[in-house]
């Protein structure tokens, strides 16, 4: 399904749509779906930018917007990164605040006629997003959280990512690959020699990332490649089709 139409591809984190673009795209579908990237602003080792999770969420959302007739929103760039507080540059908001922000966005969209919202999450620590979707769905609202672990696993296998999802926790093969493809100019030297594995992280919520890594890295970034990043995004775009169907069913 191609929903891009005449959409300009040359944009970064902020969509370049006009209100008429949104009107025209909405006229061609039975129910409009908005896509909200949610990232973070937290350390990603010495070679990836603080905005990595936001950049990843936006890259996924752009792939979705190129394939489906969705209303692409600008990202939420600061979220729940308390486990990374030991590193300079990390900024967080509370889970209560993130919950309220996503709820307010969904409410605003419904007032303008967009009844369904897909939240594209780029940061594993944004646990509260699951609660937002769960509660909204219980109220009869159309909301989904993407990607699920199964979507990442399918993408990992399709792209030939060697690291398991357990090992590839932070600034590892997947994130490095996506940025090598989508934003290679933002990657600093060092990912080739920064592999670090810490699979047993049962006290992460108590100790934070500093309890498990000195560099801030948990994963194998040396295995990253732009080719894997491209394949990861293509797989995720394909996986979103099922979510689009659910969000627009019986509308």
Low-confidence stretches: 1-11
Q: Which percent range fits the helix content?
A: 40-55%
Global outline: globular
- The total strand number stands at 4
Please state roughly what percent of the residues sit in beta strands, choosing from under 5%, 5-15%, 15-25%, 25-35%, 35-45% or over 45%. Answer: 5-15%
**Quaternary organisation:** single chain
Characterize the structure shown:
It is a single chain. This protein is of the alpha/beta class and 251 residues long. Helix content is 40%, strand content 8%. It is built from eight helices and four strands. It has a four-stranded parallel sheet, with helices on both faces. Helix 4 links the parallel strand 3 and strand 4. Helix 2 crosses helix 6. It starts with 18 loop residues before the first helix and ends with a helix. Residues 1-11 have low confidence and may be disordered.
Short précis:
By secondary structure, this protein is α/β, with parallel strands linked by helices.
Please outline the helices and strands.
Blueprint (H helix, E strand, L loop, with lengths): L18 H9 L5 E6 L13 H16 L3 E2 L22 H17 L4 E6 L6 H11 L3 E5 L2 H11 L13 H10 L21 H4 L18 H23 L3
Parallel strand pairs: 1-2, 1-3, 3-4
Helix pairs in contact: 2-6, 2-8, 3-4, 5-8, 6-8
């Amino acid at each position: 399904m191609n929903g891009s139409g005449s959409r300009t591809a040359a944009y970064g984190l902020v969509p370049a749509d006009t209100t008429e673009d949104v009107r025209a795209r909405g006229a061609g579908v039975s129910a409009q779906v908005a896509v909200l990237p949610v990232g973070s602003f937290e350390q990603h080792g010495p070679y990836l930018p603080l905005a990595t999770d936001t950049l990843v969420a936006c890259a996924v959302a752009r792939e979705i917007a190129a394939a489906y007739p969705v209303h692409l929103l600008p990202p939420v760039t600061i979220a729940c990164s308390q486990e990374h507080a030991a590193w300079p540059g990390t900024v967080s908001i509370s889970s209560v605040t993130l919950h309220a922000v996503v709820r307010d966005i969904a409410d605003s969209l419904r007032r303008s006629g967009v009844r369904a919202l897909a939240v594209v999450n780029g940061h594993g620590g944004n646990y509260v997003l699951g609660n937002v979707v769960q509660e909204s769905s219980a109220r009869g609202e159309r909301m989904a959280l993407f990607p699920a672990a199964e979507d990442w696993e399918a993408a990992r296998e399709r792209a030939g990512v060697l690291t398991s999802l357990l090992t590839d926790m932070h600034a590892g093969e997947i994130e490095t690959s996506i940025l090598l493809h989508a934003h290679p100019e933002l990657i600093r030297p060092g990912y080739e020699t920064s592999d670090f594995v810490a699979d047993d992280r049962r006290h992460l919520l108590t100790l934070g990332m500093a309890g498990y890594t000195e560099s801030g890295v948990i994963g194998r970034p040396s295995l990253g490649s732009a080719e894997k990043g491209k394949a990861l995004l293509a797989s995720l775009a394909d996986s979103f089709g099922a979510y689009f169907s659910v969000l627009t069913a019986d509308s």
